[in-house]
Automatic annotation (TrEMBL):
InterPro entries: YdcZ. The keyword Nucleotide-binding does not apply. Pfam families: DMT_YdcZ. Keywords: Membrane, Transmembrane, Transmembrane helix. This is DMT family transporter. The chain crosses the membrane at residues 36-56, 68-87, 93-113, 125-142.
Amino acid sequence: MATFAILFTVIGGIMLNSQAAVNGTLGRNIGVIEASFISFFTGTGFLAILVLFFGQGDLLAIFDAPKWQLSAVFCGTLYVLFSVFAVPKIGVAATSILVISGQLFMGLIIDHFGMFNGAVIPIDSNRRLAIFFMALALFFVYKGNKRGIQE
């Protein structure tokens, strides 16, 4: 089962970057906010079909969920909006490494403090090294962008 989780996560990353590239292009044609809206609107329709045929949860339980948990909607919306804005300006690779850097940073903070009822995993030397290599990757991707623009 862990193999499927890893495979699905990699496929999810591929889809995320594909979405960013397509949405960035769409954003240039119809507008950043409009492209973000279309992305969520069509995604909502697709998910509605999945819920209808495969859903096993209870959508009405949303009224019993703690209200802070609904903030995830805004996080996802802002991610799409920001990526639609960024991709045409800095490219998919730079946008992706910046997103991954933000994810790593926030993941380390969430783990370190055990936020959202998670396990407490302190920031140790291995995690500090991960931050260093992420910053190094960001440097090289950005440097590659500048070289590509000058050519």
